[in-house]
Write a structure and sequence with these properties.
CATH topology of the domain at 11-95 and 152-209: Rossmann fold
Shape: globular
CATH architecture of the domain at 11-95 and 152-209: 3-Layer(aba) Sandwich
CATH superfamily of the domain at 11-95 and 152-209: P-loop containing nucleotide triphosphate hydrolases
Structural class: alpha/beta
CATH class of the domain at 11-95 and 152-209: Alpha Beta
Order of helices and strands: EEEHEEHEHEEHHEHE
């Protein structure tokens, strides 16, 4: 677990609140995460977990409280701004295209190119090599990067999404109930990948639904 040079947490929220009309979604919520640390937000359905995740990822702005990133009070106006600062979010639906290949999903919207304009083009060879290397680093043996994402298991899809976030420089990885639709074995696989991201110094924040006793 690492903090910044000034001792500040990597990401911290202090007494944040969020309202939707007369509905109190969140009230007086405080939490923090550091590099190499995983924090779990646990709660029942309707407890506000997804709203909290959306505040951290820049989808919602808190109506009260402080959002501090890298020791500075911060306001994100969009997930793109948060992602540019190194806060990556993996949602339950994974934002992937099942009929597209693994490598195309990995670089969707951020494709590597070669050549100069007007002859600049997608560097397909480099993209495939990068995907194979990154997934191997995460412990996934994918022999064919042209394999469609729809043929992967739920745990493998989560791993691709996590690997993609780490590759594009995530300092904080936020996961919205990553194991909610998975069996016990696949959930264990995803947790292993989260720990691997932690070992690389990435801070992690994941939400989970509380199971009945």
């Amino acid at each position: 677990m690492t903090t910044n040079a000034n001792g500040a947490h990597l990401l911290e929220v202090d007494r944040v609140g969020k309202y939707f009309g007369n509905v109190i979604a969140l009230k007086d919520i405080s939490a923090h995460v550091n590099g190499g640390e995983v924090v779990c937000v646990l709660g029942d359905n309707g407890a506000g977990k997804s709203t909290f995740i959306k505040i951290l990822s820049g989808v919602h702005r808190p109506d009260e409280g402080r959002y501090v990133f890298d020791g500075e009070d911060t306001i994100f106006h969009s997930p793109r701004e948060a992602r540019a600062r190194g806060i990556a979010t993996v949602y339950q639906d994974l934002a992937m295209c099942p009929l597209m290949s693994i490598w195309r999903n990995f670089f969707l919207g951020s494709e590597p190119t070669k050549g100069r304009w007007p002859l600049r083009r997608f560097d397909i060879h480099s993209a495939k090599d990068i995907v194979l290397h990154q997934l191997h680093e995460m412990g996934i043996d994918v022999r064919d990067p042209d394999q469609t994402v729809g043929t992967l298991s739920g745990g493998e899809r989560q791993a691709v999404a996590i690997s993609r976030a780490v590759y594009f420089g995530a300092r904080v990885l936020i996961l919205d109930e990553p194991t909610s639709a998975l069996g016990v074995k696949q959930a264990g696989v995803v947790l292993k990948y989260i720990l691997q991201a932690r070992e690389r110094g990435v801070g992690g924040c994941t939400s989970a639904r509380r199971r009945p006793a």
